[in-house]
Amino acid sequence: MVLHTPAGLVLAAYALSITWVAWHFFRMLWGRHSSTVNVKHYGEDRRKCPYIAPCPIPAHINLTEKYIMNERGMLLYTCAWRPTHIEKPRGLIVQCCGFADSNTFLPRKRSIRLAEQGFVVVGMDPEGHGRSDGLHAYIPSFPTLVEDYWQWFNQEI
Q1: Residue 90: how many CB atoms within 10 A of its CB?
Q2: Is 124 or 45 the better-scoring residue by pLDDT?
């Protein structure tokens, strides 16, 4: 078989990556975004999804999760990891998730590690990302995204 050779494995990985990109491109063009949906309540479906934490939270780390409402009436997910085993934190780290990402799964491990080292780590899922309201991975405009972060940062931190 060709797949038992290194070149065959590279070819199979390349074919899978091309298929994955093509599938997501197809979904982006003809998926849910083209249909009429209620943008405000679209995040409700993502909040109802069962969440399996990638790692347990140590007893000396305090995780606070809550929702804030932006100026457009959408709920935005926020979280904060605070170390309780030290008296004064070493610093504050603001975590901004990447495009179509969230602060609930993979960044959670990083946040716990940083909190164990004495940092306070806070994060917010912008509109359309993670457990926040809005069309998935859709950013209506970058100035509104910046305004949401600015509003959250001034209110909560």
Answers
A1: 12
A2: 124
Q: Give the span between the Cα atoms of 97 and 126, in whole angstroms.
A: 8
Whole-model pTM?
0.71
Structure tokens at 77: 């997910």
Spatial separation of the C-alpha atoms in residues 115 and 113, rounded to whole Å: 5
CB 110 within 8 A of CB 102: no
The single-letter DSSP state of residue 40 is G
User: Which fold, 39-156?
Assistant: Rossmann fold (3.40.50)
DSSP labels for 50-110? ----SSPPPTTEEEEEEEEE-TTS-EEEEEEEEESSSSS-SEEEEEE--TT--SSSHHHHH
Residue 149 CA neighbour count, 13 Å, CB half: 12
The predicted pLDDT at position 10 comes to 67
Domain map of the chain by residue range?
Answer: 2-30, 39-156
